[in-house]
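ARCHIVE CARD
Drawer: 12
Card no.: 0347
Subject: one protein chain, sequence and derived structure
Cross-reference: see card 0346
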Amino acid sequence: MTRVKQAIALVFMFAICTCVGIAEAARGGIMLPTEWLLSPPPSTVVATKTFPQSAVITADGAHLVVLEGGAGSPGIRVLDPKTLSVQREISVKGAYGVPLADRRGAGFWASTGQLDTIAHYDAASGTSDRSIALPKGFWAAGIARSPDGKTLAISGDLGDAVVIAREASGSAGTPVRVGRHPAGVAFSADGRTLFVANWGGASLSVIDVAAQSVQRDVAVGKHPEALALSRDGKRLFVSEADDDAIGIIDVANAKRVADVNVGLYRDGLFGASPSALALSQDGRRLYVTCAAANAVVVLDVAGRAPRVLGALPTGWYPTALVLEPHGSALDVVDAMGESGHANPGFDPFHHYADRDTSGYVAASSIGSIRRIPIPSDATLLDGLEAVRSNGGPFLRDAPVPPADTVVRPDGPLRHIIYIVKENRTYDQVLGDLPEANGDPALALFGANITPNEHALAKRFGILDDTYADAEVSADGHNWSMAAFGNDYLERMWPQNYGGRRELYDFEDGADASVPHAGFLWNNAVRHGITLRNYGEFTTEEAPIGKGPVTSQMTDLKDVTDPKFVGFDLSVRDEAREAEWAREFDGYVWNGDLPALEIVRLPNDHTSGTRPGFRTPVAYVAENDLSLGRLIEKVSHSRYWGETAIFVVEDDAQNGPDHVDAQRMSAYVISPYAAGGVVHQHFSTAGIVRTIELILGLPPMSAYDAAAQPLYAAFKAQPDFHGYVALPPNVDLNAINAGTAYRASYSAQADFAHEDSVPDAQLNDIIWHAVRGAAATPPPYGAFANGPLPSLRGRAQTRDDDAGIRRDDAGDDASERVGNGAHV
């Protein structure tokens, strides 16, 4: 299909989804980049913008309110509950959290996120008539109304507090301190007690409403998120997002009395992410969105011992559901929509006017809403089996590994070197390889710039159907190291990447984003596997020789090389490789190479055309040479015959790809590498699983347990010939001049942290820096003059035993008490 036809097809599909709804198109099952399938029941589906995260029906039953809070344009979409047709869209700069409908009529309250208010809207007109001001830096999340209808309780995710406000007057009381990142809030039936889910920890705070003080904390499962009070008011249900369970709280005694597992997977594997809750009108059923399982799980809560009735398969990553007023159907909100998508038309200039259709993966992947008839018990049992079979290959088919595979703990491979690079699609680097599925028109860093990546792919294997489970670096490093991204991470990174939330607490040890089983290094330590870390999840980074590098992560600090710098574009990857090589030589001499080494080589990110810094071509070429030298060092050592080297991009966000926006360049390098073109579908989680299998480690989540190991990328008979690094055909020291394409923009940009520069901008800069200022990229037209969007900043965060959190300005009002990350 030509690009023109592809574009027409995409526009037509979007128009159909947006305007009139479509019949379910996934009946045969749609393969996601994650290797999981989507095969929901036939239903009506309509499209939303990016990452719809919550929904509510107004009291008059006339409006379905859906809050869209992704990295694209935030806002509120109002639909007709009967037809799911769009009634209107309401622009809300900081839309976040779960709206609260009025007790009657068409009104509702919604959080404005970074604006630190909650605003009241009329769904019928789309207008706002009032708001309630909240403390600076509060970031409203959950909203609940007291039974007498007079009082609102509002949780502040960044404020680590709850505010009690009078709804009629709009006056807010003094913040009540609770746990970290409070989310769901719920009043008791008599209105005297308020329960608060501390999403960043493992507790509920119990507040005496009259005294406006915390009476006690109730221990619950990890990362409690949503709350729902039973119809009789005696029990409180809590979604324990990282324990795959629904906790049952005895309200009268404020005590957890039971947990119901909703993970649905064998061997107690975690990775369902139960989040939103909805009770049936009669109070007998509890519906639970299990976001990471692409499912709604249904519980019978009529008896004293709640039990799972079954499940319903949904679209990709359900975040909310509502029961229609007439009680015959569920409306399920799927944050990531119906499938992955290609983005050969990555258009940064379109990003100025409407970032949601720019092609940038973080902003343009649309969500969806689907209507599912209320299921019978028999349907739920069938749905449960469908949900399980939709998991990755090992949950679906449990394939038997090849009898002669080297991917096993007792095989010839005893050492793993796991290398993580930064932000490239397959087409950007290897699209010019004619023997594989690439688009040469999209190849920016071809064989002349990346001779080693091309040579390594040709010799050891071209993996042209391998995908990052993540979309950006915030979740990319988590997926690369945990084979999972929890619900806090998946909901919060879009707020940061959308320029609305400065807190970046995804790579620093802050507990909220740490999944149930932790990370690869935790897995290794638990099972006695020796390891060494070079630059991954590090903090307090300083140039080599000018200060130690460390990590705040449990089990990682003591095995981190203090001289190896993580993400710092002022440090050359050649220096990183030299520091790694210095230690490697010592391990060779002593015969004690760790079984697992994690190495970060980040400079393929580039500094755009920032004057005085190296050009994008020089950055990528030097990154390529450093990789080649590392491979050369290993392949001429005593450890070559028992080593496998895996190379991944943490994500594939910073560029176009004609197959899928999440397809990445990846490599398996070993004497046992199969070579040739390997077309099999692999994912980040599959690479992590392959590492675990070789090292004898159990899976950490349902995702690595279910993923296809890279059996096809290995062979039984080794080739022990060494590799010799190839010099690039470009100048590694080329410097951006002040007259370079968009040099002034690059000079202002924040390159101190990965992804801080809007990726649509960086993509445009890199394209023209490589192809020339006058070049017209294939997917879109020539440069369109116009104002640039303001650069977003990012606050660095770290774990701090002292427990004080401050913003970058040092505002005393932003101090927080608790063992959290710094704002």
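Annotation on reverse: Residues 616-635 form the longest helix (20 residues). Residues 1-27, 346-358, 779-823 have pLDDT under 50 and may be disordered.
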